[in-house]
Amino acid sequence: MLALASVAVSATGADVPARAAIASAHPLATEAGYKMLQQGGNAFDAAVTVAAVLGVVEPYSAGLGGGGFWLLHRAADKFEVMVDARETAPAAITNSLYVDENGVPVPGATLKGGKAAGIPGVPAGLAHLARRYGRLPLRVSLAPAIALARDGFNIDSRFARIAKVRESLLLEGVNTARIFLDNNHAPQQGYLLRQPQLAATLEAIALQGSNGFYLGPVAQALVGAVKAAGGMWQESDLSDYKIVERAPVRFSYRGATIVSASLPSSGGVTLAQTLNILEQFPLVDARNPASAHLVIEALRRGFQDRMRYLGDSDFVKVPTATLVGKSYAHSRAASIDPNLATPIDALSITPLAAKSESYNTTHYSVIDADGNRVGATLSINSWFGSGVVAADTGVLLNNEIDDFSLGAGLANTYHLLGGAANAIAPRKRPLSSMSPTFVEDAKGVMVIGAPGGSRIISMVLFGVLDYVNQGKVDLLGIVTAPRYHHQCWPDVVEIEPDSFSAEWIAALTAKGHQLKPVNRKWGNMQAVFKSGVDGAAQAASDPRGFDMGGY
Ligand code: DON
User: Fold this and answer.
1) Which of 434, 520, 524, 542 to mutate to test the pocket of ligand 1 (most atoms within 8 A of CB)?
2) Which of 242, 273, 342, 453 lies in disulfide reach of 302, CB 3.0 to 4.6 Å?
3) Which atom of ligand 1 is nearest to the CA of 456?
4) Rg of the chain over CA atoms, in angstroms?
5) DSSP state string for 327-373
6) How close is the Cα of 381 to the center of ligand 1, in Å?
């Protein structure tokens, strides 16, 4: 599975280095992406195909009912852009739908049912990528997804495991038991999953572009289903949906150029802040205990600012230029004690209760022979999203409204706190952590990203640190290396199980960090690399996705 998911192909034979590489969370998506390259498509066509296939074969992670970010690099003129296909809040949204008169969150309101779903952006994103950047028509690039939805595919162990975990959501959800369960039980590995209605919706998009989704019968069915499930979508929410092309966040770290997601993702800003802080110190190896202390302190400060300042920049003023600048990092770095964790009170964050966690999303990376690149992180938020499928469309809707902040001290499913900058407002995009990223230096260019909610940012941070520290790129090493995570609040450092020595734990505990081993490894990082020396390309998929039971 692993090899198939991430293999780089050579058009000319196995003994010639591949020029193109694709890494995705599912071998069927990766294969279909390569097929597009072989049919004369570029990285952007392959990106359309991979996203659409992932929506069919990993319906629990992302799909037409979700949103996300595509980070693009066009080789011909080095143009770089982030296609923001993040979900928007419907026009009729108010915070009071999610919080009672005492300021207490209504259980499940942001996570289940029609109120939890934002207006999807993926269909508009696919149509935009194909029209503006691709060479192939949607009817070609969507064909593999249509075939897999119509004819079915045999589910893998990962699907079976996730469906089991979410069995009760799927049983109670709208049309979800009929589509995703086998006689009201989580299907076993090998079960043939057919989604003919999703195939028809994909066909409508193939024929009419985004109008096939945002106007007409599909749009009407979506609005009807959301209303019936307690939500407040109107047809105008769909017809008004627009992707936005945004300038990515760009900065340098020790001579490497980093390009990452801009607002409404916090990813690039928080990554820039943490790396700029770390640049003030001698070379940082994320897994050496002395350096890990610095990494945790940098993350603490970066995530504190995420909470304080970040939100949809179309709605709120965010001091982005200051936050990502070197001089601000200088002042933030000055408050780090090399020997002791900074107490949470010194950063004036009030610890409060959080909700339970559940993760899911998908990332893929593509680089073609010409050097066009795509890093895409797409999501319906938690596993199987809101649990609402609009009848006859096969579209499983997201629960991305949970990424908004409901009020001071009210954490979301990723234990993230936020402020007014990320408050609910009509048509606003919830703050994301999804961080498709390019890292470029004399060695070449790496495209990376991962699912994992707030942990995405620390995963990508490690990816950058490891890449910059390596003389020769070990891509599998980068996606496999052990992980820890800190996000300012809660004031704990999560560590992957069986990954750090007793000495490592003791050294960090002695500096005042509270370490919390969690019960599963996390992440499903997908990376590609193209050598700046000879153009050879390689891909690597995180073994956690299939082999290690990780998220
Ligand atoms: O946009 C975000 O940050 C989240 N909705 C992403 C969710 C996620 O990565 C879950 N993954 N495992």
Assistant:
1) 434
2) 273
3) 9
4) 22
5) HHHHHHHHT--SSSPPPGGGGT------PPP----EEEEEE-TT--E
6) 5
Distance 416 CA to ligand 1 centre (A): 11
Active site residue 361: yes
Q: What whole-number distance in Å separates Cα of residue 111 and Cα of residue 381?
A: 9
Segment 394-417 shows an average pLDDT of 95
Query: Per residue in 162-204, pLDDT tens?
Result: 999 999 999 999 999 999 999 999 999 999 999 999 999 999 9
Residue nearest to atom 1 of ligand 1 (CA): 432
The pLDDT tens digits for 8-22 are 554 444 456 799 999
- Cis ω for the linkage preceding 482 (within 30 of 0): no
Residue 352: count of CB within 10 angstroms of its CB: 12
Q: b/e map of 515-530 (b: 16 or more CB within 10 Å)?
A: beeeeebbbbbbbbbb
User: Ligand 1 pocket by C-beta < 6 Å: which residues?
Assistant: 359-361, 379, 381, 400, 403, 432-434, 451-453, 456, 551
Of all atoms in ligand 1, which is nearest to the CA of residue 450?
Answer: 9
- Band the pLDDT of 346: cuts 50, 70, 90: confident
What is the token pair recorded at 387? 């649990």
Q: Which of 49, 274, 342, 361 is catalytic?
A: 361
* Residue among 430, 411, 408 nearest 419 (CA): 408
Taking CA atoms only, the protein residue closest to ligand 1 atom 6 is 453
Q: What span, in angstroms and rounded, lies between the C-alpha atoms of 54 and 65?
A: 12
Mean pLDDT of the chain: 93
pLDDT bin (cut points 50, 70, 90) of residue 239 is: very high
Report pLDDT digits (tens) over 420-475: 999 999 999 999 999 999 999 999 999 999 999 999 999 999 999 999 999 999 99
Pocket test for ligand 1, best of 166, 381, 422 (most atoms within 8 A of CB): 381
First to last CA, the chain: 16
Residue type, 400: E
Ligand 1 mutation pick, 60, 380, 433, max ligand atoms within 8 A of CB: 433
Q: Say if pTM beats, i.e. exceeds, 0.90.
A: yes
Q: How much is the average pLDDT of 316-339?
A: 93
3-state secondary structure of 288: coil
Q: Which pLDDT does position 354 carry in this prediction?
A: 38
Tokens of 302: 């970066």
What residues form DSSP beta bridges with 441? 444
From the CA of 138, how far away is ligand 1's center (Å)? 27
pLDDT of residue 357: 44
Q: Which residue has the tokens 């050097």?
A: 371
- Cα–chain center distance at 430: 13
Q: With contact defined as beta carbons under 8 Å apart, do 312 and 264 qualify?
A: yes
Quick one: tokens of 343? 């107490």
